[in-house]
Structure formats: structure tokens, C-alpha cells
Amino acid sequence: MTALPDPATLPFPKSGLPLHRSQPHSLCLAERIAETSDTVTYVFDTLDGPLQHHPGQAVAIDLPMDTGTATRTFTIASGGLDPHRLSITVKAGPSGHATRWMHEHLAPGDRLSARGPFGRFTLLPYPGQPLLLIGGGSGFTPMMSMLRWLHGRGETTDVAVIQVARQVGDLLYTEELTRIAAEMPNLRLFEVVTAPKAGEVWRGYRGRPDRAMLRSMLPDAARRVVFCCGPDPFMTSMGQVLRAEGLDPARFLTETFGAAPVKAKVVAPTDDSAQTGLTVSYRGRDFDVSPDDTLVSALAAQGVRVPTGCGEGQCGTCRLKLVSGEVDMAQQGGLSESEVADGYILACCSRPKGPVTLADPA
Fold it and tell me: What is the set of domains in the chain, with CATH numbers?
């Protein structure tokens, strides 16, 4: 076996470095770590060779639930320095059916199928530039991946990290962050609690981050390359704050998984729309759609959410069964040849060519 080079001896990757090719993998759960009351880190060993990824990339995992296999996308929390082991940190919200299933059923020794890595949300194209990593809630996961990569390689990059959580008990990786901060002299770490419990002791920043808070933390924020991840309203707010402080919008990079909410529009039918014949039948309902929209966008406009991940036809999260009709699909490896032959499509990169009937995967 060819030995992998010591990550700490590698030069900082150059701009334009190609990302690792997405491909299927087999994983075995090695460890569960309770981070908070509703958040668990899952540590996996790879069973079929290395899964190389860059910090900030993601992986899609198939979950064998009783109701059928559900594919969900997760940012990889580990830094990518050990290609034979990776971790994801998962929060199970009240409506998180699949993530709740993970918390209740996954145990060490369980084996899962995955595909990855994918995504371009990574710091590698910005060598030597000052960084600001901002994460809200579970959106802090890719920031931790990037920080672990920098720390593990002994990088001396000027980096600031802001973690925002609702309550003190929601802050992630607190002990590890304290240790990393003590070992990285060029790291500035800030933690913000937006709504601490009554009587809860917290001596750090309180409330939602605004211009005054950011300025007190980092008067030089506008000169940095900023990576931000979290709920859409959080990222929108942080973008507004940073632009008001003078940040070039091109230096504000965001990542989110799943289709953003789209307000449904009621459009009176016209003769032209009736002639298109582009009707999508799905989950017992019929929808008139535009041939210019992907199925994910068209269904979201009708208030129907299809789980998505990469949005680029790579991860397979938005897989649906094409029962009848025909689509134009521009996938990038998210489906195998046998899956395509069996009639599966990816809704994020498929546009209907006529009336189609869809079904959720078995």
C-alpha cells in the first residue's frame, strides 16, 4: 500500500485545486458522541478504501428506515486529514424524521452506504488570505471541519471563528475549541448566545450579531474571506451586516442544504400554459409546471419540498422514481447506471419534457 504523505508537511493547496471525485462508499459506525441534548456526532470508518475530501465538503448517506431508504446530505465535520475515518454532526429537530431515526437507531457496528464527497464550499482556493468562519446552530459543522484542517496541518493563517447558538447548552465542540484556540496563536474565537435561559451564567456575547457586535470582535472583518453557514435568515442577516461594514459581496461565501422556501404563486391558466402539457403528478396531486424549471424548483413553488443536498446532480439526495413520461436530466454521478435504467431521476437537475408522473423511491 502506498503511504499517504504527512498532512502537516503539505503546502497550502493552490487556487483552482480540483475537488475529489464523488463516488459510492461503504461506512461502518465506529462511535457516537453526544454533543448536546439533541445533537450527536457520528464517527465512521470507511470500509472500501479512502474517502478523501476537502474541509467544508459534504457526503450523502442512505438511511435504511422502516418506511424505506432515505438519503440525506450532511457536511463532513472532520477535517479530511485521515481519509479512512470521517465524522458528521447531526441535530434532530422536532420535524427531523430521518435525523431523529438516526439518533434512535444507529449504533456502533452499523453499516451504511454513502456517496461523496461533493460541494465547493471550502477554503482551499484562498491560500494565505485572512479568514472569517461564521456558523449558526448546526451550520457551524463546516466551520469546524475547516478549523480542524488548519489546526491539524499547523497552519498559521490569520483566522477568526464565530459560533452562534440559541442557548449555552447548544454550543458545539466547546472543549475542543478551547484546546485548538490555545494551540493556534493566530486564531480568534468568539461565541455568541442569542437567547440564554433565565439565570443561565454566560459572560460572552449575547443577542443576535449586528454591526456593533461584529465591530467589537473584528474591526478588520471587511478585509477577510468570509465563510458562513446556518439557517437562511441567519446567513442573510450576516451578509447584510458584513456588507454594511464594507465587505466585498464576492468574498462572502455561503452554504446551505435543501431547497430554500419558495413562496407559491397563483397564476391564472392561459391558453399557452394549457398547450404546454407540462403537468407533474406527484403524491396524489397534479401540478402545472414550466419547462424551464427543475422539478425541485417547480414543486417547491407549489409548496412541495423534495429533500435536496448538492443541487448539482452529485449526491443523490433528491432521487425520485419516474413512473411515466420523460425528462431532461443533467446529473453528475448522483445515480448509478443501474439506477438510471430502473427509472430513477434526480429532481434537482431534471426538467420535464412533457407530462410526468413521479413517485418517492422505494
Answer: 19-118 (2.40.30.10), 131-255 (3.40.50.80), 271-359 (3.10.20.30)
